[in-house]
User: Which sequence fits this backbone?
């Protein structure tokens, strides 16, 4: 198996080392793991692509490349440059430092990479490590992902649904904010929504007098409804959420048709 890995935390992020080990386990001794990751951190860029300017890509080592662009750019670079003659069987993105559950999904560059993989017709799985008081100070805060990641990926490859729809299915996996030994299992859940908290902007004035702003995240420990990702993670479970990039609100179609008839 040939696997392409990327992330949004950057080529030197510790979570990418964890993902490398996961990918090598899944690929097996006869497989290949290729890395194309952002040269610098790209958290929060979503499915952004560098459409109006070129992206420099540099080879850093054997099967290891850095691109001055977004995670989605890295997937495009992997598919159309680095691996143009031998497309990957799977794209893995992560392991993100922090959860990409709930509304975070909409901002995530980790997810954006897998959206691009799915749009290109390649299987994709995004993986993120939830942080909290029980794991943030561990010697290896990515312990849960490191211990359970390969098994989750292999189960999805063996038993997950992989279709050929226009907007292909992909998977979002979040590991709970606890030590590996405390993980209770895996739950297939919906994307949740943290009520009463959100991203915000804090204005600031530089010594030069220029105005700037800092984007601030909301409280990540706010629970979502039962049967959703954040709730499962805070209860000690690995969450697996099947997703598509298609955004139509199907539940609103019938009423809207009546209203506009």
Assistant:
């Amino acid at each position: 198996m040939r696997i392409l890995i990327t992330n949004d935390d950057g080529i030197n992020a510790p979570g990418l080392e964890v993902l490398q080990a996961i990918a090598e386990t899944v690929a097996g001794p006869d497989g290949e793991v290729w890395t194309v990751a952002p040269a610098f951190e790209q958290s929060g860029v979503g499915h952004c692509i560098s459409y109006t300017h070129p992206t420099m890509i540099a080879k850093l080592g054997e099967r290891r490349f850095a691109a001055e662009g977004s995670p989605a750019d890295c997937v495009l670079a992997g598919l159309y440059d680095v691996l143009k003659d031998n497309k990957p069987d799977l794209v893995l993105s992560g392991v993100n430092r922090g959860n990409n559950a709930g509304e975070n999904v909409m901002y995530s560059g980790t997810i954006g990479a897998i959206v691009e993989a799915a749009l290109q017709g390649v299987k994709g799985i995004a993986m993120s490590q939830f942080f909290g008081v029980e794991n943030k100070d561990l010697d290896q805060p990515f312990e849960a992902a490191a211990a359970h990641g390969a098994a989750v990926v292999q189960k999805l490859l063996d038993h997950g649904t992989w279709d050929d729809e226009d907007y292909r299915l992909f998977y979002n996996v979040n590991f709970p904010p606890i030590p590996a030994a405390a993980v209770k299992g895996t739950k297939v859940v919906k994307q949740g929504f943290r009520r009463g908290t959100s991203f915000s902007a804090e204005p600031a004035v530089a010594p030069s007098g220029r105005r700037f702003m800092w984007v601030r995240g909301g409280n990540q420990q706010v629970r979502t409804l039962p049967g959703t990702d954040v709730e499962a993670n805070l209860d000690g479970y690995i969450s697996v959420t099947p997703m598509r990039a298609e955004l139509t609100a199907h539940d609103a179609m019938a009423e809207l048709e009546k209203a506009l008839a």
